[in-house]
User: What shape does this take?
Amino acid sequence: QVQLVESGGGLVQPGGSLRLSCAASGITFSVYHMSWYRQAPGKERELVARIISPSGSTAYADSVKGRFTISRDNAKNTLYLQMNSLKPEDTAVYYCNARHRSGPPIDYWGQGTQVTVSS
Assistant: This one.
């Protein structure tokens, strides 16, 4: 059974930082492309950042470039998102996503973690 469990969300002031984690189980983590998505109230879910297997190359939404950093620890089966210089518009539920790098296009999702940026 595949499980993706996000943690690390919370309330932070503008300009602050948070680090999200996504613990994966039930998959061979290292062979999955991993991504962070977010969904704000009344908006569609959007891709925030992706890290590719096996190269480790990364891609970011323009809105978070230079502020967010995605990383992975294959030994710990864990995905991270370091978020700096947070803005109110970063407020959303953040979801972890996994897709096998060469298998069928099946997406696995976590339950999400709330990030609220407000003074």
